Amino acid sequence: MKNKFIILLAMSSSLFLFSQVGINTPNPQGTFHIDGAKDNPATGIPSVIQQANDMVVTNTGDLGVGITVPTTKMHIVSNTANLNRYTLIDAPAGGNSLTIMALRNTAPLATGNFSLLGFTNNGPTSGGANWGIGSIRTSTAEDFYMGNSLGGGYLERLRITSSGDVGIGINAPTRKLDINGDLRVRNVPVGSPGIDQIGVDSNGNVVKVPASESTAIVVRGEILGAHWHQVQTVPATLAPAGYPYLKSVTVSLFNAQGKAAITGILVKQNQVLACSGIGGFGTNICTTSNPAGGTMSVDVTSAPGFTITLSNNIANGIYSNLYYTAEYSKY
What we know:
By secondary structure, the protein is mostly beta strands. The protein is 6% helix and 39% strand. The strands form 5 sheets. Strands 6-7-8-9-10-11 form a 6-stranded mixed sheet, with no helix packed on it. Strands 14-23-16-17-18-19 form a 6-stranded antiparallel sheet, with no helix packed on it. The model is unreliable at 13-17 (pLDDT under 50). Residues 1-19 form the signal peptide. Keywords: Signal.
């Protein structure tokens, strides 16, 4: 009996002295080490294949599964896929809406706090993951967040607010889909005649334009006896109610010396005049020669109003008749 007690005391002393416990291994790699397949060497570091069936708890409380040197609180390494997956968490969720796995940031609530799951492919061994997906705290709620790192902190790429608005390139979307950047849509089907159209207002909002309102209104006018060296102004009030955008303008001049004409198409809402056949894109002005040796120009800087300027080198000037056609749109 005395001998048994001495043996037991010696075993216990060795545990306290070395502070390491090995199950199925005489060579524990941490405070607590289980060698599932009992295939580790008696000395030295187990190989990657040997570590695949091991579990280790270090003296700092890190847990390693499939690895004997965990570098975080839970470090899982799976080298062999099973049923097209490496790691699986099963839970009997059934028909309820409970989460299978939850990540929580336990820091005091503060705007800008993250709770992210990171992903990287053969990325850096330090500095975190290249992509982070999870939630970000706002002043009143939690938004879904997606960002990536190009070497420093995360750059936000997508956000879904707690109210369901989606922002791409913007962290405070105000519409169900709010894009800060260029938009490209491929393979848009051809619609049937008479269906509604899509337009963009001056604030970038996409709006539906009823087929009955998608057509333009054309206004025709004339200025008889227009004098050279004068500016003829067509006021903005000429635009029909509900059609505030000048879409195109054509001006024709007739006098004894001949004819001159300008056709300009506005390539943006009330700005940037494209001059047809007389120099391509202008700024807001198109100019052409008149048959009396001067010039005639159309300026849409004040669109939907516009001005027509006539000039020549004849002292007393020449009187001409001007005719214009202005096309106005609703969007």
